[in-house]
Design brief:
By secondary structure, the chain is mainly α. The protein contains 11 helices and 5 strands; from the N terminus they run H-H-E-H-H-E-E-H-H-E-H-H-E-H-H-H.
Length: about 250
Amino acid sequence: MDVVSNATARDEIGLTVAGMAQIPAASHEVNLFIAVLRLAVEAQWTYQPSPTHVQAVTITSKEVQKHLPPSWLTKAALSGVPTLLRHEPATWHCTVRSDEGGWEMELSPFLRRYGRLQTAQEYLGSWCFSGGPSDLQVKLEGMSLGLTPTQSSVFTTTEFCDGRVAPDSIYGLLHRECFRLFPDEMFADLFADSGRDCVPPMIVAVVMVLQRIEGCSDREAVDRFAYDARWKYAAGGLGFDYPGFVESAGQPA
């Protein structure tokens, strides 16, 4: 999907579950991803390690076909699963290999945090809340939608980074397009009308994109947002004094 006409080839951005969840015609692919995620989490939780050698935990497309309804398992749907697995936050730390015969995913311990998710809404909500999935409903009822500031503070990363950051870099691309790609209002139905504001979803989305591209851990991504001006610049040109957030991306620091 070409979302930005002046983006370079390496900056092309395709729809993830967050975008596909807004498109009724993509509900089948979203549900299939959630089902595969649940199977992967179950495999990670039930794996019994060998006392004598290290063995990777994996699931394959053939194993998935045994557990899901045949109506879900069209060739087109299955072939799109590896792309989603490589791009989604839940499975970024996994290794996905695919060929004409199907695909295999080597699982990561990070999958354990998604153990109780059942729906796409719960999955998307887990981006913006601290604690495990079991806390999700409580958090939804007690948290309201945080909005990304549109008025600049006295000291902004825009003035500092303009002319220093290449316009065709991922930082420049996100700086120009983040409010259009990840509007906070797109996630409004996940939140209560009143309560403590969460970290604005647009900022969380930008941090997750940069985390994936730069190969950071959650802790490293939080630190870079706090101390690397380019990350705040990518999130719409936030002020240098804009607060960071805790590692789970749920609460302001």
